[in-house]
Amino acid sequence: MDPYLPLTTTEQLEWGNPVVDTHIHSLIKRYSPVENLSKETLKSTDIWITAGLEDERVPLSQSLNYTQKLRRLSTDSHGQLVLYLSDRAHTHDAHISKELHELSLELSFLLHSLSIK
């Protein structure tokens, strides 16, 4: 748990403080995407990751660390890993045409992954 990226006050009221409470820390760690990656879960899996360059909730460094761990664990050459860097933040505040463009990229990836032509 990164002490420099603490939960917000609202989140701490809801879940507790994982920095000082080891039980809360272990609960959060159980559903952490980075902590629960394994070679078994990545076999022939296609993964699309969207990272916001200006995202204040999920800093770019976290998305890059996640992608790096995926690459280290992946031994299967059949799965695809795509990291899409968006200039949007977490709240989708872009113009509708930008949102539609990004949605079309995601859907194209999904259709390709499912072998739908």
End-to-end separation in angstroms reads 43 Å
**Shape, per Cα inertia axes:** globular
**H/E element string?**
HHEHEH
What structural class do you assign from the helix and strand content? Answer: alpha+beta
Strand order in the largest sheet: 1-2
Strand content: 5-15%
Mean pLDDT: 82
Summarize the structure in words.
With 117 residues, the chain is an alpha+beta fold. 41% of the residues lie in helices and 10% in strands. The chain has 2 domains: 1-32, no CATH class; 39-113, no CATH class. The radius of gyration is 17 Å and the shape is globular. The model has no long low-confidence stretch (mean pLDDT 82).
Highlighted features:
two-stranded parallel sheet; 117 residues; alpha+beta; 2 strands; 2 domains; 41% helix; 4 helices
